[in-house]
Write a structure and sequence with these properties.
By secondary structure, the chain is α+β, with helices and mostly antiparallel strands. Helices cover 30% and strands 34% of the residues. Helix 1 packs antiparallel against helix 2 and helix 4 runs antiparallel to helix 5. It is elongated, with a radius of gyration of 44 Å. The N terminus is likely disordered.
């Protein structure tokens, strides 16, 4: 290269001083062409971020029941009002039960008579069996007594079942809370006629709660890998655990529904907020990313040269997950001017 420069610059008419200047200029150009690009670096560990992602969420009750009567009857009392907290088994509504109680008592009386008749039939059969041993009873008489005893037993069994059914109807005159709940709606009033299936109260379970969150498609895997998830609402922060991601995408928003269970204290049913989770994989700040041939990535320094590392999961303006070693040297200043494989000189920041 030096010889070529000398030949190009040499002219018989040039003075020796001019020849020397031309030669030095060519040598300077050559040195500059081969000089390293000055850059500054920071390690992945120093740059690493663990960004917090979030998604809209709502606390929902697993049990939202509209309580209705199972039998027809006039309402005598309504023991609760909207906003009341009730325990499982607490009385909510009482119906006038006189007719059902009368029917129950009537069947009990019939059962008592049938039981007495069965006892008589059993005794008569026993006596016939004794006479049979001495050939003092005919086969026809024995058969008649056996038939009467079986008929009496069947009637007793039938009336026992009728008594249990009548007692069950009497129990249904008192409507109880099926779980610990909050009363959020009341349509029953004393004096109204309650028909089977007509809603009287609406209860929301205050213990069996979950959080429903709408998770963007690209965040689903990061959520599954998260170690700590929190439901944040106006009333506070509640630790939760991921129970399931519903494997159906909401087509309009391109999101999944995720369900979470409370780890400790619970928010109120219906409380709105956000699900937050912190990434476990290190991320590099969006400010250190560069684009080469349409791909976002970062430049690192290895053996005095710049190396481009594409980051497929990177998005413009967001921290990018990275799998580089913690001590990898990421180019900060000068990253826009270097090319893959170019020589670089690391400067102290």
């Amino acid at each position: 290269m030096f010889d070529l420069v000398v030949r190009v610059c040499y002219r018989p008419a040039l003075a020796p001083a001019l020849l020397l200047a031309c030669t030095l200029s060519a040598m300077s150009d050559s040195v500059l062409a081969q000089s390293a690009q000055p850059v500054t670096i920071q390690s992945v560990k120093a740059l690493a971020q663990y960004p917090v992602a979030s998604a809209p969420a709502t606390s929902v009750s697993l049990n939202d029941a509209r309580i209705s009567a199972e039998i027809a009857g006039v309402i005598k009392t309504v023991a609760v009002r909207v906003g009341d907290r009730v325990a499982a088994g607490a009385t909510l509504v009482s119906l006038d039960c006189d007719s059902h109680e009368f029917k129950r008592d009537q069947i009990r009386a019939q059962l008592a008579g049938a039981t007495a008749r069965k006892e008589l039939a059993d005794y008569q059969l026993e006596q016939v069996d004794k006479l049979k041993a001495g050939n003092f009873a005919s086969a026809e008489e024995i058969m008649r007594r056996k038939s009467a005893a079986r008929e009496a037993a069947a009637q007793v069994a039938q009336l026992n079942a009728a008594v249990r059914e009548a007692e069950n109807l009497v129990k249904k005159c008192t409507i109880e809370a099926p779980f610990d709940a909050v009363v959020i709606e009341r349509t029953a009033s004393p004096g109204n006629l309650a028909n089977p299936g007509t809603p009287l109260l609406r209860l929301v379970d205050r213990n069996e709660l979950e959080v429903s969150g709408q998770i963007q498609e690209q965040d689903a895997e990061r959520l599954r890998a998260a170690e700590r998830i929190t439901f944040v609402s106006a009333s506070g922060r509640y630790p939760v655990e991921l129970r399931a991601v519903v494997p159906v995408i909401e087509t309009r928003l391109r999101s999944f529904e995720a369900r979470f269970v409370f780890s400790d204290t619970r928010a109120a049913p219906g409380e709105a907020g956000r699900i937050e989770w912190r990434a476990t994989q290190p991320h590099l700040p969006a400010s250190v990313l560069v684009r080469r041939e349409g791909t976002l990535g970062v430049f690192t320094v290895a053996d005095g040269r710049a190396r481009f590392h594409p980051l497929p999961a990177a998005r413009e303006g967001y921290p990018a997950p990275v799998e580089l070693p913690a001590d990898a040297a990421v180019i900060i200043d000068g990253r826009f001017n270097v090319a893959d494989g170019a020589r670089v000189e690391v400067l102290q920041r």
